[in-house]
Amino acid sequence: MKKTALQGKTTKPIKKSSQPLAAESSNSRIQMVDVARKAGVSAATVSRALSGNPSIPESTRNRIAEIAGSMGYRVNHSAANLRRGQTNVIGVVVLISDTQPISDPFILGLIGYIADALNANGNSMLLTRVSTEPRATLQTMVSSGQCSGLLVIGQTYHQVLNELEIAGIPMVVWGAQLPDTRYSVVGSNNLTGGYLATSHLLGGGAKRIVYLGESTFPEGKLRYAGYVKALKQYGLKPDKSLHRHCLLSATEIEESIHQLLVEDVAFDAIFAASDVGAIRAISALNSHNIKVPSQVKVVGFDNIPMSAHVQPTLTTINQSIDLAATAMVELLNEKLTGAASRSVVLPAVLIERKSSR
Amino acid sequence: MKKTALQGKTTKPIKKSSQPLAAESSNSRIQMVDVARKAGVSAATVSRALSGNPSIPESTRNRIAEIAGSMGYRVNHSAANLRRGQTNVIGVVVLISDTQPISDPFILGLIGYIADALNANGNSMLLTRVSTEPRATLQTMVSSGQCSGLLVIGQTYHQVLNELEIAGIPMVVWGAQLPDTRYSVVGSNNLTGGYLATSHLLGGGAKRIVYLGESTFPEGKLRYAGYVKALKQYGLKPDKSLHRHCLLSATEIEESIHQLLVEDVAFDAIFAASDVGAIRAISALNSHNIKVPSQVKVVGFDNIPMSAHVQPTLTTINQSIDLAATAMVELLNEKLTGAASRSVVLPAVLIERKSSR
DNA sequence: ATGAAAGCGCTAACAG
DNA sequence: CTGTTAGCGCTTTCAT
User: Full-prediction pTM beyond 0.85?
Assistant: First the structure.
C-alpha cells in the first residue's frame, strides 16, 4: 500500500460547486449519503437499515426506509454487487444447436416457470440463447460477474457442460442423467416416460408403433430406450423401418410421415418424442387422409397446455415444469452455497386423452 | 511529480496484514492489472485495448487481447458498469394482471424473438414478470442501475406506464396506440386485424358472429372495434348476445361456449381475439358435438406456430413477432440515445386456413 | 501512445 | 448500536 489518499481531506473536488437550488429537481442521481444526511445518520447505517440488518433497531430501520422511499432512492446494483463481490442474478441459457429462435412451447413454458421461481427467490434472470462458442460464452457470463450461476436448458453440448462443471462454474442443467454426467441435472424420467407411452399403445392393441423424433441427445435416447423396453416386454422386436429419428420441425415431421407412406411401411401407432412433433404428425396424417385415432393412434411427450385442446386431444407424458423450475433453482442455490452437485429425476406420468383410443 | 506519497512519513496503520496469506495462490480472481503486468503495460492500456480504443495500435491491441484470452481474463461487469454509470442490460417485463406464470405461446414467442434481437444488439436481457406494484418495480429496475431501459409487454397498467414515461424511464411497450398514450408503443394494427377477420367470415356467408375474448385492454378493444366496423359495413347491427368478453383461460372459454348454447343463442361463426382462445373454443365446440367449420366457422388472432397444425388448421390474423421484436429494440435504442418517443404499427394480415371454410 | 491518479456508489471490518 | 475508513475492479481525464 502506498500513498493512499491524503487522509483527513474529506472534501472532494467539488464538481458542481453550489448545490443546485432544487436538489430534488433533476440531474444528480440521489444516493445513499443523501438519505443518510436527511435521516441524520451515516451511510453505513442506511446501508444496514436498508438491507434489514437486525443490529439496527426496527424503529430506526423503518424510519430510514421511509425516508429513502420518499426520496425515491434505490440502491445502486452495480456498486453493491461490486462491493459484495456477488450478484443476485442467475443466467438462464438456452443451449440448442438450432439457429431458429426458441419456439417450442415446452421450453418457453419452462422458462416462464423458471422466471417465477427465480423471482420468488429474490433473484433476477438473465436470459440468453447461445448457439456458438458455448464454452466461452457460459464461462464469461459467470466469471465476468454478470451473473452468479447458470441454469442451462438443453444438453446438446454435453461434453462442454462437463468441462464447465469441472472448471467450477455453478450450474444446473435441464436434461437427462447419463453415466458420464458430472454436472447437476434436473429432468423427467424419460425412460419411464417412453416405456409408459409405448406400453399404453401396445396395451390398446397397437402392434407396429413408429418412434418419431430426436434420439441423438440424451433425453431422446432415453425415451427411445423406454420404447424399446416396452416392445421387448410385449415380445416384439424393434423394427428399424419404424424408427424415424428426425428433428421436430414441421417440415421434417411431414417428410417423415410422407416417407413412411411412400415406403409403404405398415404402422398403427406413433410415439412422438414431443407434443409439438405429435401435433404436427397428426396434421400430416390428416392431410394424407389418415384418421387419428381410428387408423393410427398417437402419443406425445411433454403435456404442453395446447395438447389438451387440439383435436383429437392428445395422449401424452406429463413433464411437471413447475416442479422442474423449482428444483433447478433450489439445486443451484445449494451449489452456490457450496454444496456438492446433486440431481433430481421427476416422475413421468401418462395422461390419457383421445388420440390413442 | 507533486506530492508523491510520503512513504516513510505518513505511517498510517497499514492493516493490509490481515489479508489471507496465499493471495496469489489460486483463488483470487485474475484481474486487469494482472493482464497489464504480463503484457508490460498499465491497466489503463489494457482497458483501452480491450474496448477497442483506436488510440492503441492494432498490434498492441491484439497482443493484449491474446494475453488476456490466454489468462482467461474477463472484464468485471459490475466494476465497469459502476465506473461508466451505465449497463448494457435491458429489462423485459411481462406486465399482466394474471397470477399464473406466463403461458401464452404468443407472448412466450415474442420474448424469444426479443431475446435474439437484444443479443444481436450486444445487450443482455433481464426477464421479469410483474404482477404487483408495477410502478415501483419498474422504477427501481432502471433507477437502481439494474438495467438501462425497459421493454414492457402488456398494457394492463396503461396509466402507470404513462406516468413512468413522464418520469423519464426509457421504455417501449408492446400493445396498442391509444389517444392518450404518451409512451412508445409497438403493436399490430389491431383494428384492421379485427376488421379483416370479421369481413372474411361475413364474406364467407356468416351472419351471426360471436366475438370471443378480452376487450377491456387496448388491443382487445381495437380488435373488437374492427369487428363492429366490419359488421356495420355489411349492414349488420352488433348484437349484444354475441359478445362474449372473457379471459382466454381454458375454463372461461368453455364456460362462454357453454353459456351460448344454454342461452340458445344462434351463431354461425366465432372471431376469437387470440389463437389460444380459438383453439380452446374449437375444443369446447367439439365436446358439444358442433363441427368446425361446417357448423361454425372460427377465426383466431396471433398466428402462433401451432395454429397451422391443429385440426382443422386455424384461420387467423398474423402478428409478425420477429418484426415486432426488432422494432421494439430499435425504438428503445433510439430513446436511450436521446431521441423522442416514436411508435410503430405493424401490419395485420389474414391467414386463411380450414377453420373458416 | 501510454501512465498516474481519481473516483463510480456502496458495504463491511473495526473500533468505539 | 453506529460511525469511520478503506477499498471492490474498472474507466477516464489529464499530463506527459
Answer: yes
